[in-house]
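so im writing up the methods section and need the Putative amidohydrolase 2 record in one place, dumping it here so i stop losing it
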Amino acid sequence: MTRPCLPPRGTYEPLAFDPPPGACDSHAHVFGPYTRFPLAEDRSYTPVEHPGEAFVAHLDRLRLARGVLVTGSASGTDNGAVLAALQSYPQRLRGVAVPQAGTTDAELERWHAAGIRGVRFNLFKRDGHAVYRNGVGIEVLEALAPRLAGLGWHAQIWIHAPDLVELAPRLLRTGLPLVIDHMGRMAAARGVEDPGFRTLCRMLAEGKAWTKISGADRNTDMGPPYGDIDPFAAALLEANAGRVVWGSDWPHINYFEAHQVPDDGALLNLLARWLPDERMRRRVLVDNPAALYDFAPAA
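--- predicted struct ---
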């Protein structure tokens, strides 16, 4: 039996800037309804039901036009909740699925038609041990890479940046665009000179990877307003702002105390600090996700 997660906050901090037309939340999850899309029996957490319409309400509260849904580890390899949301909101949403080694060409093509534009691989470990159950590893990525390339998809990599020192060469050999989750899930205490984080910055600078400047609430040692994350966001944006997108990580699974659940308005407002230039905010919130996730050009 896993612990039930708390729901996201019902109110958001007022926004410090007006999101540009076409702005995108590039990392979030949906779960349920569980009568249709039950969770994996073996899972690390139990989220509250949050189907597609709840996510769209979250986008509306933040005045964001678009969103990207990623199948969460509690769902295992069942992408049903994400696909149902994409079907309901085809213009506003794109998705990142979790495949299996035996996923067929026909299924990949069906996913593509639905709005899937990447697949996620769980390489996230601490001290050599997997942090979350479920997900698929690098061997599946290598096996599927030629077919994913044919679809024009990317590989979203959930990894602790220090492990990139060892794994980046192997990941790059797949030839796929790589998207590194949550700034490499860097604990702030490790600092921006950590060799793995420098590897991530170099991958961005060379145009070989993207990253999401998301997860400030999980990477921080200080808590809000997440000042200890500023140097990491600055380093990634300096490396290559053209390979950076932003995500909320809504509905913030695996939090069990109310004071820990982050405020989505406050998370979006970090961009007022990290990207004070309006043109750069448009690049990260609109132009980059439009290119990465194949959205129509924003008005």
